[in-house]
Amino acid sequence: MLFLVDIKLVQKFKPFYLQAFKTNTLYFLKEYSRYSLFMMLIAYFSKNALLIHHYKDAILTYN
Asked: Strands of 58-62's sheet, edge to edge?
């Protein structure tokens, strides 16, 4: 799955991201917001790209 993750969110919640990528689960990412969780669920079931926050500030992370 391809994750598009906002840099500011990564800096603020880095431990959660690292844990989530390590365990390959969305459980730890649900802390951010309902919007983020909604997008993650879409990405999880569609096996497509996941967008958090804004494209312009995004970095690519492969899991």
From this structure: 50-51, 2-6, 58-62
